[in-house]
Structures are given as structure tokens and as C-alpha cells.
Amino acid sequence: MHLHPFELHRPTTVEETVRLARGLPGGFDWLAGGTDLLPNYKMHLNVRPHLIALGGVDELRGRSGGRVGAMTRLGDLERDSEFGASYPGLAEAIGEVATPLVRESATIGGNLLVETRCFFFNQSLPWRESLGYCLKADGDRCHVVPQKVKCYATFSGDVAPALAVLDARVEVAGPDGRRSVPLLALYDAAGDGIRRTHLGPGELLVAIDLPDSARGMPANYQKLRVRPAFDFPELGLAAAGRIVDGRVESLALAAGGLETYPRRFDELTGPLLGERLSEERIRALAESVRLAVRPVHNTFLAPDYRRRMVAVFVRRAVARLGSVPGGTAG
Ligand SMILES: Cc1cc2nc3c(=O)[nH]c(=O)nc-3n(C[C@H](O)[C@H](O)[C@H](O)COP(=O)(O)OP(=O)(O)OC[C@H]3O[C@@H](n4cnc5c(N)ncnc54)[C@H](O)[C@@H]3O)c2cc1C
Ligand code: SF4
After folding, report:
1. Assuming Cys at both sites, which of 26, 66, 201, 311 could form a disulfide with 286, CB separation 3.0 to 4.6 Å?
2. pLDDT bucket at 1, cuts 50 / 70 / 90
3. What residue owns the CA closest to ligand 1's atom 6?
4. Is the pTM for the entire model greater than 0.90?
5. For the chain, how are helix, strand and coil distributed in percent, rounded to 5?
6. Using a 6 Å cutoff on CB, does residue 137 contact ligand 2?
7. pLDDT in tens, 165-202
8. Residue 138: beta bridge partners?
9. 69 contacts: CB under 8 Å, gap ≥ 6
10. Which atom of ligand 2 is nearest to the CA of 116?
């Protein structure tokens, strides 16, 4: 596996970065830590002739209160004890990404935009060539759900669900200036699965903003994967909320690793607000999440198993948020 030749650009401000992106013939990719993009380039997956490295743009780095620059490395956030104490579920998710070595290069912005995964896509060029390629790179059909329109590759980032349950927003910069959007609005959930986000041409992530309400919010993250030391999520479930004396003051659940985009389950948790929780109600919630999700068979673990595990994770997540009278730990 070798890298195609590309031209590397190193801007130093957001404005220069956006300007540069306008005039590059043949297309470009933003390069953050490169831990996802460069392995994909080595497999000749959708390579572009230009890479714009974001590492020299100071504004994108570091944390100030609830604002985290898109280029902040996961390893730095992991060592930030004040961050970990303020956002325990988020810190848990960050600590579950890849390996300690990868987290030294991997950034939080890159994690939110990590390429979706499928075992017909994350393969070498000869492997894909022998099968005839697929919609997501070089081909015109899907090997998972036979049709020629939509890709069902799985969103496999750990951090997005943990941010989503905290109502995080992202700041985006582009040719038309800057805008702030709720994190989940970034993802093009109704699209063809190939265009993954609502980022316009030349737009990049500048920062993630956590609201004041997220600080100190009880939260947790659980991950299902084949090799615990290493692998992408086959399911990642984040939960946040306050359950006081068995009554639900707030509750949010979000999952990744199951479908093409990370998603929240407000339509299922909403009816529980203000209600007293019982073991029966938690089981009913877990079952409704299981029925709502639609994983397909394009990662290692079978879709049915991942659906059953999401129900298990929901029960455990809620039990960890607060004690439920008469309930067990799931
Ligand atoms: C062995 C291994 C195991 C892994 N396991 C996991 C895992 O368990 N969980 C997990 O979540 N990930 C995993 N990853 C994937 C990856 O390491 C992480 O998701 C990482 O956080 C990606 O960040 P990065 O900075 O390296 O992104 P890059 O690889 O640089 O970029 C990823 C994508 O985001 C785009 N991008 C990056 N920054 C911006 C920005 N500011 N604005 C717009 N677009 C941007 C890039 O153009 C690219 O498309 C693994 C990778 C490896 C090699
Ligand atoms: S889901 Fe289908 S189109 Fe998407 S990567 Fe897999 S085989 Fe390709």
C-alpha cells in the first residue's frame, strides 16, 4: 500500500484556509491528525490531489471552558483532568477511541468526520478490484443492500454520540463566513450515505461548543467492539441526564456504530421526563431503542446481536445515571 502523490498546503489562519480551498483544481481534503484519512488514502479510497493541513492554524487548537478547538488532540483532552471531571461521559468516550498512540495524533474534529465504515469498503485496492468496487468508491452498486442509489456504511466515531447527549454545537467556517449548528444537524441523515455531512464546499469545523448545562451533567458511554484494545465501535451508546430519587429530570440517549449517522432517541426518552422510573419502564425504553435501530450487515458483528446489545447498554446506562427504586443494574 502506498500513498498517491498529492500537494500539501499549510495555511496558518482560518481565513487563509478558506481562501486556499477555493482555488484548488481536482479537489482537496482537510488533513487533521491523518489517522483515518491517510490509511484510507493508502487503500486508494477517494484520493484527492491536494491536502490542506490544519495543524498550523492556531485558532483550531486547544480548549477554553466549554469550547474545544476542532484540532485539539484526543490525547490532550484525556490528560485534561478538569475536562474529565466536568464532562465525564465525554471523557469516557474519548478514552475508548482507538489506542493511546492513535489518540496522540487523532483530533476531536477528525473524529466527528471520520469516514463511515463497511467491510466491502475498508479494503485494499486489489481486494475491491476483484469484487468490482462499490458505490462509495469507484463502483456503481452496493454489496450490502443490493441497489445503486444509497450507501449504508456505518458511522463509527465514538465521540459524536457523547457530544450529542450534551447538546453540543459545532462552529463551521467557509466562504460565506461562520455559522453554528447543533452537532447532529451536521450529518446528512436523509442523504445517499456517501455525502456524509451538510458541510458546504470549502467549509471546515472550527470548534465544538458545549453549553453551560453540560458541565457536571451525569453521563456515560459504553462501547461494543471486537478487540477492546483497538477496534472501531460496533455499537457506541452515550447517555446523559439527571435522575433524582427515581424521577427523570432530564434524559438523552444517542448511538453510533449502528447506522449511517449518529442519532439521538428523544422521541423515546421524551415521554419519561418528569416520570418516576421503574425497572419495567427502563426495560420498555431499552426495547423501544432496540426496535428503532436498523444496523445492516457490513461490520464484523451481526446486526441482530448489535440490536440486542443496544437494549442491554440502555438498561446499564440508565442505571448508572441514578438509582431507580426497586430496580437492578440492568
Ligand atoms: C488503528 C485505528 C483504530 C481506530 N479506532 C477508532 C475507534 O475506536 N473509534 C473512533 O472513533 N475512531 C477510530 N479510528 C479512527 C481515527 O483514528 C479517529 O476517528 C480520529 O479521531 C480521527 O481524527 P484525525 O484527526 O486523525 O482525522 P483525519 O484522519 O485527519 O480526518 C478524518 C476526516 O475528517 C476530515 N476533517 C478533519 N478535521 C476536519 C475539520 N476541522 N473540518 C472539516 N473536516 C475535517 C478529514 O478531511 C477526513 O475526511 C481508528 C483509527 C486507527 C488507525
Ligand atoms: S454499504 Fe454498500 S455502497 Fe456503502 S461502502 Fe458498503 S458496499 Fe459500498
Report:
1. 311
2. confident
3. 98
4. yes
5. 35, 20, 45
6. no
7. 999 999 999 999 999 999 999 999 999 999 889 999 99
8. 134
9. 59, 60, 61, 62, 63, 109, 206, 207
10. 5
In ligand 2, the atom with minimum distance to the C-alpha of 142 is: 2
How far does CA 123 lie from the centroid of its chain? Answer: 21
Q: Calculate the CA 204 to chain-centre distance.
A: 16
What is the DSSP pairing of strand 263-264 with strand 247-256? antiparallel
Task: Show the CA angle centred on residue 111, arms to residues 107 and 114, nearest 5°.
Answer: 130
Pocket residue to mutate for ligand 2, from 43, 129, 144, most atoms within 8 A of Cβ? 144
Is any ligand 2 atom within 6 A of the Cβ of residue 57?
no
CA distance 22 to 202: 7
**Residue ranges of the alpha helices (H) in 67-107?**
74-79, 81-86, 88-95, 100-105
CA dist., res. 18 & res. 281, Å (int): 49
Question: Domains of the chain, with CATH numbers?
Answer: 59-212 (3.30.465.10), 218-321 (3.30.390.50)
| Centre of ligand 2 from the C-alpha of residue 216, in Å | 39
Query: Does residue 136 contact residue 151 with C-beta atoms inside 8 Å?
Result: yes
The minimum-distance atom of ligand 1 relative to the CA of 206 is: 41
Q: Ligand 2 pocket: which of 43, 119, 152 to mutate (most atoms <8 Å of CB)?
A: 152
Rounded-to-integer distance, Cα 288 and Cα 296, Å: 18
Q: Closest Cα to residue 222, out of 92, 110, 61?
A: 92
Q: How far apart are CA 173 and CA 73, in angstroms?
A: 20
